[in-house]
């Protein structure tokens, strides 16, 4: 979004604020805004009168998994404070859920009430940069998986779970950023949210692929290695298509997907665990191809 700078008679320079942001933040002619200088950037923030979003959870009717899921869902929704009522000491369960968030902390723990707050003070305005970082984390995970699986195979289940948790953390952070600072164009916001959810699923699929090799081992053949590298190429191309959704790139991605499908048919006849590995490889490139649909919605 570009704004024109206007020179005033007294040598001052002014710039109009986007009307969508003005309305969203209830800016009036008497409002005071915080202005932060950062090299070539100016960050304008509205800290006065910003509504703190709160929510409540009653643990008595939940299991551990449901509690974890609700905390992360409220975090992604943009809630700033969560109050949890429970007659049990569930602090360890809360800390476990907070490991997949950025800025959230358990700030109060009484006999039957637990308060979680956003203490990070994070600036969510750079949505495109956050998205790029998340996508690059997923790409890096696949690169490292291939190097490990077809290399020295040093990764452990514990290390793999830590990698997966880190990707999930940033995917859900992207979802929160979108909820907090939506694009003026609501269609683009929805597309980006769908992207973040899809990237988390692809990250999970890479985790499953890597875990299959650590737990069971796969046949180290050139055919399987070539198939995996082709799948990885498709995922990398999906990243390029987000920024350059031209017909040539999209056609190339779908050709990679189709070739990967075809080459996998004979490999799926191998022993069960290797066939499971191959299915993960194919699923990753299938999901990567599906991302092109979102890119077209955003750019057409």
Pick out the low-confidence regions: none
Total helical elements: 9
CATH superfamily of the largest domain: Phosphate transport system protein phou homolog 2, domain 2
H/E topology pattern: EEHEEEHEHEEHHHHHH
CATH architecture of the largest domain: Up-down Bundle
Q: Which sheet architecture does the biggest sheet show? A: 4 strands, mixed
Percent of sequence in beta strands: 5-15%
How many strands appear in the DSSP assignment?
8
Backbone structural class = alpha+beta
Separation, N- and C-terminal Cα atoms: 18 Å
- Tally of domains: 3
What percent of the residues sit in helical stretches (DSSP H or I)? 55-70%
* Morphology: flat
Overall description:
The protein is α+β, with helices and mostly antiparallel strands. The protein is 59% helix and 13% strand. It is built from nine helices and eight strands. The chain has helices at residues 19-24, 64-77, 91-98, 127-149, 157-180, 186-216, 222-243, 247-267, 272-299, and strands spanning 5-7, 13-15, 34-38, 41-45, 54-58, 81-85, 104-109, 113-118. Strand 1 (5-7) and strand 2 (13-15) form a beta hairpin. Helix 5 packs antiparallel against helix 6 (186-216), helix 6 (186-216) packs antiparallel against helix 9 (272-299) and helix 8 (247-267) packs antiparallel against helix 9. 28% of the residues are buried.
Give the structure's gist in a few sentences:
It is built from 9 helices and 8 strands. It is α+β, with helices and mostly antiparallel strands and 300 residues long.
